[in-house]
TrEMBL record:
GO molecular function: enzyme inhibitor activity
InterPro entries attached to this UniProt entry: Invertase/methylesterase_inhib, Pectinesterase_inhib_dom, PME_Inhibitor
Record keywords: Signal
Keyword Zinc: no
Stretch forming the signal peptide: 1-26
Protein name in the entry: Pectinesterase inhibitor domain-containing protein
Limits of the Pectinesterase inhibitor domain: 27-169
Domain of life per record: Eukaryota
PANTHER family assigned to the protein according to its UniProt record, in alphabetical order: CELL WALL _ VACUOLAR INHIBITOR OF FRUCTOSIDASE 2, PECTINESTERASE INHIBITOR-LIKE
């Protein structure tokens, strides 16, 4: 009888161990692929989320991608701040302000996600993407016209794509 109890205890322990350790990784990976499959930038979505999260919820994925977007916006804002300190270019100063606004909007997105206000999170993430896009417009308004720096274009595209992914994931939470 004692050996039957030990065998039963061992069986339950093994079942618990194998059911709780492996599937959580598989579940996270499956959730990432399933969720990213509905976004416009599948590869960017998957690579970003796989390297930064272990969540098993779509809300957690939304939070993770917004955090990545906020890091991108913060890095660009810092880059622009260091560039504008040695320049009096009004277009660069305008871009620096826009990226600071994008950071604030993404912070608002995280706050809204934390309290499950998904409609507001969507609006904030949308505003963040728009802030980055207006940076290019600042260069278009300059007279004489000044070329949009390639580094800024690359950074803008990255943030725009991350914001698009965030919007598409948040949209899944709203429904």
């Amino acid at each position: 009888m004692a050996s039957l109890t030990k065998l039963l205890t061992l069986s339950i322990t093994l079942i618990y161990y194998f059911s709780s350790s492996s599937p959580s990784t598989a579940t996270t990976s499956d959730l990432i692929h399933q969720t990213c499959n509905t976004t416009a930038y599948y590869d960017l979505c998957v690579s970003s989320l796989q390297s930064s999260t272990t969540t098993t919820t779509k809300a957690g994925l939304a939070t993770a991608i917004v955090t990545i977007a906020m890091s991108n916006a913060t890095n660009t804002s810092s880059y622009l701040s260091s560039t504008t300190s040695s320049s009096s270019d009004p277009a660069l100063k305008s871009c620096s302000a826009r990226y600071a606004e994008a950071c604030a909007a993404l912070h608002g997105t995280l706050d809204a996600l934390a309290v499950e206000m998904y409609d507001y999170a969507y609006l904030q993430a949308s505003a963040a993407g728009e802030c980055a896009r207006t940076c290019r417009e600042a260069f278009g308004r300059r007279r004489p016209k000044v070329a949009y720096p390639a580094e800024l274009a690359r950074r803008e595209e990255g943030l725009a794509r991350l914001c698009t992914i965030a919007l598409q994931i948040i949209n899944q939470l709203v429904v």
